[in-house]
Amino acid sequence: MSQMQNVERQLREMILGLEIGPGERLTERWIEGRFGASRTPVRAALLRLETEGLVGRDGRGWTVAPINLAELGQIAVYREAVEVAAVRLTAALEDRSGIDVIAAMLDSCDAETPREEWHRVGMDFHIELARLAGNEFLLRAVRDAMTRLSRARWLEVRDEKALGRAWAEHHAILAAVRAGHADEAARLLSGHIAGSRERLVTSLHDDRRGLRARGFAVVAA
Amino acid sequence: MSQMQNVERQLREMILGLEIGPGERLTERWIEGRFGASRTPVRAALLRLETEGLVGRDGRGWTVAPINLAELGQIAVYREAVEVAAVRLTAALEDRSGIDVIAAMLDSCDAETPREEWHRVGMDFHIELARLAGNEFLLRAVRDAMTRLSRARWLEVRDEKALGRAWAEHHAILAAVRAGHADEAARLLSGHIAGSRERLVTSLHDDRRGLRARGFAVVAA
DNA sequence: GATACCAATTTGGGATACCAAGATGGTATT
DNA sequence: AATACCATCTTGGTATCCCAAATTGGTATC
Questions:
Q1: DSSP character at residue B63
Q2: pLDDT digits (tens, 9 = 90+) for B80-121
Q3: pTM of the full predicted structure?
Q4: B-contacting residues of A 158-217, CB under 8 Å?
Q5: What are the HTH gntR-type domain coordinates in residue numbering (chains A, B) (predicted)?
Q6: Cβ contact A75–B51 (<8 Å)
Q7: Which of A169, A220, A77 minimizes the C-alpha distance to B137?
Q8: Contacts with B7 (C-beta within 8 Å, 6 or more apart), sequence order
Q9: A80 touches chain B (CB under 8 A)
Q10: Contacts of A74 in chain B (CB under 8 A)
Q11: Nearest to B109 by CA among B160, B155, B167, B157
């Protein structure tokens, strides 16, 4: 594993895990010292993370991307387009057995499962569902979108009921795809994503003072 | 303008303009000498172009992305999803006056217009149409897709009739959007993209021997 | 006390030197 | 002549040094 990949991976995990807060300033020298790498791989890693939208340039200097409510809304529209397209393709496939693996993944979560795991499975559901379509570009689009949503989903206040509803909606979507009902799967998925966006943006908007108090930059919609 | 941006822009133009052939090997030292920059900005530029899919890693070393017929088909599916989503959003807007600017752009092309201009306008049509939706992610997706299709479109054998048909289809799409007919616009756009893909892949497939003879790596579908 | 200005420090951009691993080509041995 | 082997060169990865610009902090002046 090269130093660049090391720095990229660790820095991404720190950002996505909110160990470095949204809006925080980064200096190449700090990262250099933090990970024990020299500036060359550090700069390479920053360039890659920039294309993922996790860090940005603030004139001179680097900043961890803030939580942007308007952007979250746009991402929801974007992922709806690509996820619906993917699920329609999958519903038209002859071999849809990949569905079962995803269903098993969902079922591996229960009341005892830690929140980290729910979080991961909630993202992987959409990514793996998109993978079944067999289109690299749709898959990458979904993966990128979920990455960008990841931090916001950590900050969202979610109760047991919300988790259960998402779980049920996921299963309903899988059932429609398994049955080859493309239109119904698309309708369910659209509704799921729209509701998901609604709750996410509302939750963050209501809590934006609390988030700012924690030092997280939140850009209004 | 920083050196990195210089190298990135020039290298991208050389790749998209087929001055460097698909599949060709690149060494950091050659680029360094070619553009009079040192390896630091060269490496930064390569890292960025890699995320655009224009260059890739070939184990040790860099290669210009080959023409990949399977990939072209997947891109068409991807862009259909995002372009249709964008055009539906635009058709639902109150202010759709941006349409007229795009129509004027189309009309600036006639029989006297050089091929480079047709090529550029053909791509910009889709990009500008997507921009009207006001969604950064849909716009970027379309822009990226068009960038990846750019070289293949240069290689495609297109006659006057094909150009005229595309021109007419573009205008028909605009008319539907202007009238606010989302479903019809979506249908026309889908058909346009599907036909476009069909002709593109067929043309390149039929001509793949000629392309390989010119030193261009072509990966079959 | 406010402000204008200057020096010192910090920061990212760029250039270069070094290294390890892999490709290459020549040579010696059979 | 074929092949095994070794020296050499090439290449990307990394570390480090230099530089210009911008920020910062203090100081002197009004």
A1: E
A2: 999 999 999 999 999 999 999 999 999 998 888 888 899 999
A3: 0.94
A4: none
A5: 1-67
A6: no
A7: A77
A8: B31, B35, B37, B41, B42, B44, B45
A9: yes
A10: 135-138
A11: B167
